Amino acid sequence: MENFIVSARKYRPDSFQTVVAQASITNTLKNAIKSNQLAHAYLFCGPRGVGKTTCARIFAKTINCTNLTDDTEACNTCESCTSFNSSRSFNIHELDAASNNSVDDIRNLTDQVRVPPQMGKYSVYIIDEVHMLSSQAFNAFLKTLEEPPKHAIFILATTEKHKIIPTILSRCQIFDFNRIGVADISEHLEYVAKSESVEVEGEGLNIIAQKADGAMRDALSIFDQIVSFSGKKITYQDVITNLNVLDYDYYFRLVDEFLKNNVTEVMVIFNDILNHGFDGHHFITGLSSHFRDLLVCKDPVTIQLLEVGGDIKERYRAQAAATESDFLLDAMQIANTCDMQYKTSQNKRLLIELALIRIAQLTLKKNS
Ligand SMILES: [Zn+2]
Hints:
By secondary structure, the chain is an alpha/beta fold. It folds into three domains: 7-176, P-loop containing nucleotide triphosphate hydrolases (Rossmann fold), CATH 3.40.50.300; 182-243, Orthogonal Bundle (Helicase, Ruva Protein, domain 3); 248-367, Zinc Finger, Delta Prime, domain 3 (Up-down Bundle). It is built from 18 helices and seven strands. Strand 3 (123-128), helix 6 and strand 4 form a beta-alpha-beta unit. The chain binds zinc ion. Zinc ion is lined by residues 65-67, 74-75, 78, 80-81.
């Protein structure tokens, strides 16, 4: 593959505008810059891969830009911006506290903090995974945080806010980053695919987004993995084969057969799933989620909890319309019990089959 740059790096946002799904945070930061009300310390909290470090870098670039746009974005042409964009700016310092968490590491950093920047207004210190600092290192850092020099701005990032001591918390302006939703991730992947002239089926993107579980970085690396495997034309089938995801078509078919009380066909489908090498436990938890997804589709208020997009949403809506809430609740209950008993069961296959038979008989009374 010609010059394939890892998408997570190539498509890292370089302006507030292009950060995905964190608008309230980027707007607040932009307003602070615009009104010249910068804090000396920020704490960026949230799950991994949602843009904390990216936002910190954009922030550092923007406050040092000498020619801000009307929209409070970095100009990307001034000397400061170009040095930022080619990673040779001296105004930004990054410390990964996961691997540099000793008192000495922090002392090195605080020694640097005193030196004013040669160029630009601010020196920005990003401390990633700040909760990993040793308690001594924390204390050493606290002194600097209490009386920071004018030019210094600290951005602390963490996935575990509860591990940050109160004395640090109280000195920081805190931003909570959201997990990124499946729809937002899909949309961004679609944009990346288009830019790389990769053709992908929408349902495939959806699966990647679900698998990434809220982290854009993971979504992009899964995307890369599939491109290197399947080339520039990616189908839904390619994605589920590559990620070893059970085709949700199975779940739709199963529900159709449950409603027809067709135990035989249900058993055949389940056998087919096992023959494809899928794990029974994985299957039963997936089935529970499918019932749950159908249930949220029954109410216009909860339908937004359904984390799928496009054509497949229609399919959920149609199947939800064909089922009764009572059936879904009972079926969820049975699947959930099966899930809980799975680990300790001596005959796992039978356990699941029993559950499936019971679900297939739920509507019997009504139908007869
Ligand atoms: Zn600039």
